[in-house]
Amino acid sequence: MNFVVNPSGYLDMYYMSILNRQYSLNAKACTYIDIEMFVRYLENCFKTFKTIAPNRTTFSIASNYCKYSFLWNNATILEINYIKKLFETQLKDFYIYKYQNQYRDGYIQKR
What we know:
single chain; 4 helices; two-stranded parallel sheet; 50% helix
């Protein structure tokens, strides 16, 4: 028998897949992403959810906004680890991603 040790972490990882199955959305798992579209959604997130620092937003808000946008608009399941990998590789020259353990969240900042 397998136990879920961290239910919040599990939901973070698989929530989009669960929504897809629950509502029969027929979305496909992301194997390739249109970076321009991702950046468009991300920039929309910066405009929609303004913080004290205009060039910064929390990682949780940005990732959730992008995940839902891709699911509803593009029928694509975008998981949290894929988003983290994007910020650590393809988007590292344009955005700073930093995890802050004391808040159990991170932030995304424009360079």
